[in-house]
Amino acid sequence: MRVVFDGKKIYVSYTKRETDKIISNEEHAMIEITPQELRLLHDDVTNVVTDYWRQVSIDEELSKLRSRR
User: Fold this and answer.
1) Is 3 helix (H, G, I), strand (E, B) or coil?
2) φ/ψ of residue 63, rounded to 5
């Protein structure tokens, strides 16, 4: 699984193995991941959260500056 932030949207992509597991289990799909995949997921989520809040903060600051005019 990969998680990315692009503009104002957050995207998640899955490997074929993960999508097959999700499709085959109609309720809740538990997907086993390796420690290496967990590290990638952690890095992705950290980057998305940082980028998202950075963008939100920039947008809020710009909005405040525009309203002062």
Assistant:
1) strand
2) -65, -40
| Distance of alpha carbon 9 from alpha carbon 27, whole angstroms | 26
* Structural domain containing residue 34: 2-68
The Cα 47–Cα 50 span in angstroms is: 5
pLDDT the model gives residue 29: 65
> What integer pLDDT is reported at residue 17 of this predicted model?
85
DSSP 4-46: EEETTEEEEE--HHHHHHHHH-SS-------HHHHHHHHHHHH
Q: Provide the number of structural domains found in the chain.
A: 1
Q: What is the DSSP letter of 2?
A: E
Rounded Cα distance between 49 and 43, Å, is: 10
Residues 25-50 have pLDDT tens digits of 766 767 778 899 899 999 999 999 99
